[in-house]
Amino acid sequence: MLEKALSGGRGYWALVISLLVISGIGVIAYLYQLEVGLGVTGLCRDVTWGLYIGQFTFLVGVAASAVMLVIPYYLHDYKKFGKIIILGKFLAVACVIMCMLFIFVDMGQPWRILNLFLYISPHSPMFWDATVLAGYLSLNIVTGWVVLQSDKKGVKAPSWVMPLIYISIPWAISIHTVTAFLFAGLPGRDLWMSALLAAHFLASAFAVGPSLLILLALGIRKFTKFNPGKEAIAVLGKIVTYTMSIYLFFWGLKLFTWLFSQKPGYLHVFQFLFVGIGEYNAIVPIVWAAVVMAVTSVVLLMIAALRKNEKILALACILVFVSLWIEKGFVFVVGGLAITPFKTIIEYWPTLPEIVITIGVWAIGFLILTILYKIAVSVREEEIA
Amino acid sequence: MISRRQFLKIAGISAACGIGMAATSSFIKAGASRSDDTRDRLIAKRWGMFIDTRKIDENDRERIINACHSIHNVPNFDNPRHAVKWIWTEEFIRAFPEQRGEFIAEKLIQKPILVLCNNCSNPPCVRVCPTQATFKRERDGLVLMDFHRCFGCRYCMAGCPYGARSFNFWDPKPYIEEINPEFPTRMMGVVEKCSFCYQRIDRGIIPACVEVSNGAMVVGDLSDPGSEIRILLREHITIRRRPELGTEPNVFYKI
User: Fold this and answer.
1) Which residue of A342, A344, A346, A349 is the best one to mutate when testing the B interface, meaning the one whose CB has the most B CBs within 10 A?
2) Pairing with A265, which of A193, B122, B187, B211 sits 20 to 30 Å away (CA)?
């Protein structure tokens, strides 16, 4: 099927080449960071994780959300998702690869990465995270590819692939749970240490992933002959409505504990994010922008008449995506560390090389996604023809 | 505990990966001459430190920090955001933030306190490290680091609730005033921290900071009820940094 990626129209090649160019610029910026050190980033001895680990956290969520297609189709026999499950799985593949790249570019001594497996440390959540991510990547490549190949031949998928599909469901939950455990078990980090964190992560993941899928499906419908189906898109919209509402509800739960308990550590976090502490208030407008976008999206989604208008649905999905990107891709990681162990505030902003590297990794991810989607769409177009 | 054989293996693997040949060879030399030499070393089951903050003045603090940073090849980066610190001072209210309050004595608020790695008995940094580059030495509870195994993920820095860990954001060598060949220098991209002077303890010498503290700092075996440190802890009221986090810090402060 790979050959399908090698034949395409002008639009396809323009996209591939521009993504290659952006990736290339990212690689050059990374080589600079590799040579000179992580000092070229905005990270510091207090805020030791930033944009890279934020992207990693965000993208693990997008990857996990493929399960929002797999569960309805395979467990509830919702046939309308049959044609687009492959979009979810290939999105997961691209996202997990981006996750791995973001971990890699964040490392101080990346060539020692094999130490992770030479000195297996089961007490470290990071070991488990690497393990479940690698497993999830394999599951999605294998099940995605095999099922698509069967579709292409017009035969039923081989039976050995079914257990893998069923395993991929709890496995998807596990990748985001373990990613939450990276943060949720650290004493002394008040923003992170919450039993709710994994659930909150999953809610946001299951909102942002389907939102992105809706946008991608609308794009595919516009630019190719493959129509993912109006009803499938509408049902995805309902899923986003539920998960985004649950996500906001979980925020309410957190805010209650923070504000009612009046525990200084929690109040500090609240103040830092939503009010600002003295001169340290640069993050506040960003946080509020995310809040406004999240609430607006839920209002747009909840009113069925609005949600059924695909233009408004698309707008709501963009709001969900941007809002959750701000929260998980930046505020969550940075906010957890900006309040130092000395209860001082250290601000962090990414530098230009850091931003270029980040865009570069995203470009690599989108390049992989473009190629995989090209293959999937070509198979679907053949089915129609 | 890491045996010499394991140590050499780790160093060898690191070298094979093409990392820091010079530093590695100096580490092997250091390891070969003394790592398993038990004749002279100071013995303790659980090392602890007592710091009498009343006995330490400005000059003492400077001397103590210099003694540590010079023998351990601690680089002096220009940007304070990238500072590498093994032992340094923080205002009382920052070292003990839970003590904040309206009516705390003014002279106390800004009182400089020496802070360092607490050599926790239940260290989060060891728990989170994905390569065991940070490990607890079984025989005496010291929390130590293998600079050649650390791959710089900085998870330990997020895990440490004391800000006791530093990262080499740049190549540290140009920022070391005078290199002490007795102790390994680090390469760019790894984490480091106070090592409780294990390399001195293993040769029967007390940590450098304690040595130059004029008796204001004392180390000893917390598991031995008759040790000097246990006697001091019985006689004086001391506090530890953030004990509520369950890390079991082993540095005790008399304020």
Assistant:
1) A342
2) B122
Are the Cβ atoms of A39 and B124 closer than 8 angstroms?
no
Parallel, antiparallel, or unpaired for β B143-145 and B134-136?
A: antiparallel
Rounded to 10 deg, the angle between the A51-64 and A125-153 helix axes is 40
C-beta atoms of B151 and A113 within 8 A: yes
- Mind telling me how many Å the CA of A189 is from chain B's nearest CA? 8
Tell whether the model's pLDDT for residue B35 goes beyond 90.
Answer: no
Instruction: For chain A, positions 182-201, list CB contacts with chain B under 8 A.
Output: 182-183, 186-189
Q: From CA A106, how far away is CA B189, in angstroms rounded?
A: 10
- Residue B17 pLDDT: 45
pLDDT for position B7: 52
How close does chain A come to B127, measured CA to CA in Å? 6
Instruction: Tell me which residue in B84, B128, B169 faces A125 most closely, judged by beta carbons.
Output: B128
Smallest Cβ–Cβ distance between B161 and the set A106, A126, A188 belongs to A188
The reported pLDDT for the residue numbered B9 is 56
**Which single residue is written with the structure tokens 């540095």?**
B251
Contact A188 B245 (CB under 8 A): yes
* φ/ψ bin of B17: left (φ > 0), alpha (ψ from -120 to 50), beta (otherwise): alpha
CA-nearest residue to B129 within chain A is A124
Q: Which domain holds residue B123?
A: 4-254
- Torsion, CA B24, CA B28, CA B31, CA B36, rounded to 10: 130
The list of chain A residues with pLDDT below 70 reads none
For residue A197, give both structure tokens. Answer: 């964190």
Q: Does residue B13 surpass a pLDDT of 70? A: no
Using an 8 Å CB-CB cutoff, list chain B residues near A32: none
- Element (DSSP H or E) covering residue B218: strand B217-221
| Cβ pair B128:A342 closer than 8 A | no
Question: How many structural domains is chain B composed of?
Answer: 1
Rounded-to-integer distance, Cα B178 and Cα A113, Å? 32
Please write the tens of the pLDDT for every residue from B47-85.
Answer: 999 999 999 999 999 999 999 999 999 999 999 999 999
Q: List, for residues A267-289, the tens digit of each pLDDT value.
A: 999 999 999 999 999 999 999 99
Determine contact: A263 vs chain B, CB below 8 A: no
Q: Give B-chain residues touching A110 at CB under 8 angstroms.
A: 151-152
Distances (CA, A) of A190 to A267, A284, A303: 9, 18, 36
DSSP structural state of residue A109 = S
A208 within 8 A of A324, measured Cβ to Cβ: yes
pLDDT, tens digit (0-9, with 9 covering 90-100), for B84-128 = 999 999 999 999 999 998 999 999 999 999 999 999 999 999 999
pTM over 0.90, yes/no: yes
- Looking at the DSSP assignment, which residues form a beta bridge with residue B90? B113
Q: Output the domain CATH number for residue B76.
A: 3.30.70.20
User: Please, what are the domains in chain A?
Assistant: 2-384 (1.20.1630.10)
Nearest-by-Cβ selection for A45 from B81, B97, B246: B81
Its ipTM equals 0.93
Residue A133 and residue B233: Cα distance in Å, rounded? 48
Distance CA A273, CA A63 (A): 27
